[in-house]
Each structure stands twice: as structure tokens, then as C-alpha cells.
């Protein structure tokens, strides 16, 4: 009798684990659960414990609570894009210890809780693009030790605290495009030796600190297009010791002078650096060169600047020589006057 009761209990437990939430569709023995665009305002109950993919995108969830995913221990992929998400509460994701992909794109998130990534040690792909994030705190992402791809594009990020990416030692692809960053600071990417792609285009970056790129030993693509760069330091890119790196730097308000020409000439002569859009880099100032292609001007910037320097130098030299000649003439004239005075006979009165 006891055996029958145990068998019945086991059957009930197995059966309950295969339940499919109302209004959702379940596939492959309930391991794939599709709850897209069903109008849910909270995470539905009765999600099978063995579910490894859960798609809740296109709903009206507004928030993730601390108990939202309790019991869904096998989840590998969680899709929550376009869900009107405004708040992720503390430890809302901490039970998802096997999660590998998390999509929170196209929501309304303004901040991430300090323990946002707690428990997500196996996460490899995180999408947070098209939200309203304004800053990244130093602890929000520190536990993502397996993360390989991070998409933070199309936010309002102005500040990234040094240390925000400290724990992301496996990161290979970082997208920070279409934000409001003003500087690429040193120390930000210290632990990203495996980073292959860095996208920071369409920000407000006007300065790249000298050591900012130095740790990136495997960087293959660096996109700096459409920022506020006016000048560059060659040492910044000389510190980029990689096998091969492709740079994109057009659509910046470059100040075209001899120094900028020298920097780009040096970069182009470094074997492992490739400026893919060099011919599309145009001058913003001086006004006389506005819209002109830096690549087509070749050495004309330095020729013009050198000619100007030579003219100024020549003018100064002529002025100096003229001054010296005038001084010499004056000296000779004074000498002649003195000699003449010395040779004149004594006045008649003195002879008497």
C-alpha cells in the first residue's frame, strides 16, 4: 500500500512539473515556454521546473520581484525585452544560477540594483540596450565572471565608475554606443584582456586618456565614430599592443592641423593598426578647411603650416638683420665723429 502511495505521489510531482502556464505555449516536453505578448503584468505561475528557455517579451510586467523566478532552477535563457520593465528589485535574479542569456532590452530601466548580478555566475550574454540607464555603479556587474557579451547601447549613460567592469574578465564584446559618455578613462577596462570588440560610437567623447586602451591585448575592432574628438595623442594608440586592430574614427569634429596629420601618419605606419575610414575623416576646423578630407590632403597641412612658420621666421630674421645693420651703421658713425673731433686743430683762443 505504501508503494502505491509513493508511486502516486511521484506521478503527481512529475505531472505538476510539466504543467504549462495558462495562455502560454510549451514545447519539447515543456522545456521551452513561450509567453510572448500575452498581456501578463507579473511572472506567471506554474512554469515547469525543468524549463530552460522562457520567453516573456512583449508583456507589461513593469517590475521583477525577488521571488519572481523561485523554483525555475534549470533556466538557461530568459527573454524579457519590450516588457515595460521599470524596476528590477534586489535579488530578483539570484536564484537563476544556471542562466546563460538574459535579454532586458527595450525597457524603461533607470538604475540597476547593487546586487543585480548576484548568482549569475554562468551568464554569458546580457542585453540591456534601449533602456534609460544613466550610470553604472562599481558593484552592479561585478559577479558576471563568465560574461562574454554585454550590450548597453542606446541608454543615457554619462558615468561609468572605475571598477564597474572589474569582474568581467571573460568579456569579448562590449557595446556602449549611443550613450552620453564624455571621456574614455584609464582604469575602466583594466581586466578586459580578452576584449575583441569595443563600440563607443555616437557618444560625446572628447578625450581618450593615455592608458585607457593599454590593457586590451586582443582588441580587433574599436569604433569611435560620431563623438566629439578634435585631436589625438599617438601614445594612446601606441599603447594598444594587439595583433591587429581596426579603428573607425569618422564623423568627429577634427581640428585639422599639422599635429593631427602627424598623429594619423604615425598610426597608419603602425603595422597592427588600421584606420578603416581614414578617407572619410573630414575637417571641422579651421573654417577654411571645413568639410575637407584629411586623407586627401596628405601632407598639405604640414606644408601650409611649415610655409607659415618659414615666413614668420624669415620676417623675424630680416628684422633682426636690419636692426643689426642699423646698429652697426650707428656705431661707425659715432666712431667717425669721435675720430674727427680728435683730429681737429685747437681753437685760436687756446693757441694764444
Task: Describe, in plain words, how this protein is organized in 3D.
The structure is a single chain. With 352 residues, this protein is α/β, with parallel strands linked by helices. The protein contains six helices and 20 strands. Helix 3 packs across helix 5. It is rod-shaped, with a radius of gyration of 35 Å. Residues 1-17 and 348-352 have low confidence and may be disordered. The chain crosses the membrane at residues 307-327. Residues 333-352 are annotated as: Disordered. Keywords: Leucine-rich repeat, Membrane, Repeat, Signal, Transmembrane, Transmembrane helix.
What's the quick description here?
24% of the residues lie in helices and 15% in strands.
Number of helices: 6
- The strand order across the widest sheet is 1-2-3-5-7-8-10-12-14-16-17-19
Q: What does the main sheet amount to?
A: 12 strands, mixed
Q: SSE order in H/E notation?
A: HEEEEEEEEEEEEEEEEHEEHEEHHH
Helix content: 10-25%
Q: What is the CA-based Rg, rounded?
A: 35 Å
N- to C-terminal distance: 166 Å
Indicate the mean pLDDT: 87
- The count of DSSP E runs of length 2 or more, i.e. the number of strands, is 20
How big a fraction of the residues is strand? Answer: 15-25%
Low-pLDDT regions: 1-17, 348-352
Structural class: alpha/beta
Shape: rod-shaped
List the helices and strands and how they pair.
Blueprint: H1 2-17, E1 25-27, E2 32-34, E3 53-55, E4 63-64, E5 77-79, E6 87-88, E7 101-103, E8 125-127, E9 135-136, E10 149-151, E11 159-160, E12 173-175, E13 183-184, E14 197-199, E15 207-208, E16 221-223, H2 234-238, E17 245-248, E18 254-255, H3 258-268, E19 273-275, E20 283-285, H4 294-297, H5 300-343, H6 348-351
Parallel strand pairs: 2-3, 3-5, 4-6, 5-7, 7-8, 8-10, 9-11, 10-12, 12-14, 13-15, 14-16, 16-17, 17-19, 18-20
Antiparallel strand pairs: 1-2
Helix pairs in contact: 3-5
Amino acid at each position: 500500500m505504501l508503494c502505491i502511495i509513493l508511486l502516486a505521489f511521484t506521478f503527481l510531482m512529475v505531472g505538476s512539473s510539466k504543467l504549462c502556464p495558462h495562455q502560454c505555449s510549451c514545447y519539447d516536453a515543456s522545456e521551452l515556454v513561450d509567453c510572448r505578448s500575452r498581456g501578463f503584468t507579473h511572472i506567471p505561475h506554474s512554469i515547469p521546473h525543468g524549463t530552460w528557455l522562457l520567453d516573456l517579451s512583449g508583456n507589461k510586467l513593469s517590475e521583477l520581484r525577488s521571488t519572481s523566478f523561485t523554483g525555475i532552477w534549470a533556466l538557461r535563457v530568459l527573454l524579457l525585452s519590450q516588457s515595460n520593465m521599470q524596476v528590477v528589485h534586489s535579488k530578483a535574479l539570484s536564484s537563476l544560477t544556471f542562466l546563460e542569456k538574459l535579454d532586458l532590452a527595450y525597457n524603461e530601466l533607470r538604475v540597476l540594483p547593487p546586487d543585480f548580478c548576484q548568482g549569475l555566475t554562468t551568464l554569458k550574454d546580457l542585453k540591456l540596450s534601449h533602456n534609460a540607464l544613466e550610470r553604472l555603479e562599481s558593484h552592479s556587474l561585478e559577479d558576471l565572471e563568465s560574461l562574454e557579451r554585454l550590450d548597453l547601447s542606446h541608454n543615457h549613460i554619462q558615468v561609468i565608475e572605475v571598477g564597474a567592469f572589474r569582474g568581467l574578465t571573460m568579456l569579448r564584446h562590449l557595446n556602449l554606443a549611443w550613450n552620453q559618455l564624455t571621456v574614455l578613462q584609464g582604469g575602466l577596462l583594466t581586466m578586459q584582456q580578452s576584449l575583441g570588440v569595443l563600440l563607443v560610437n555616437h557618444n560625446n567623447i572628447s578625450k581618450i586618456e593615455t592608458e585607457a586602451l593599454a590593457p586590451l591585448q586582443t582588441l580587433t575592432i574599436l569604433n569611435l565614430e560620431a563623438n566629439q574628438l578634435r585631436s589625438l595623442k599617438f601614445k594612446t594608440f601606441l599603447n594598444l599592443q594587439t595583433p591587429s586592430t581596426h579603428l573607425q574614427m569618422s564623423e568627429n569634429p577634427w581640428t585639422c592641423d599639422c599635429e593631427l596629420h602627424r598623429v594619423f601618419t604615425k598610426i597608419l605606419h603602425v603595422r597592427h593598426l588600421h584606420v578603416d575610414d581614414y578617407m572619410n575623416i573630414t575637417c571641422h576646423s579651421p573654417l577654411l578647411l571645413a568639410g575637407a578630407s584629411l586623407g586627401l590632403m596628405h601632407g598639405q597641412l604640414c606644408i601650409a603650416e611649415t610655409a607659415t612658420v618659414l615666413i614668420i621666421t624669415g620676417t623675424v630674421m630680416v628684422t633682426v638683420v636690419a636692426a643689426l645693420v642699423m646698429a652697426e651703421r650707428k656705431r661707425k658713425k659715432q666712431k667717425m665723429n669721435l675720430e674727427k673731433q680728435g683730429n681737429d686743430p685747437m681753437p685760436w683762443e687756446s693757441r694764444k
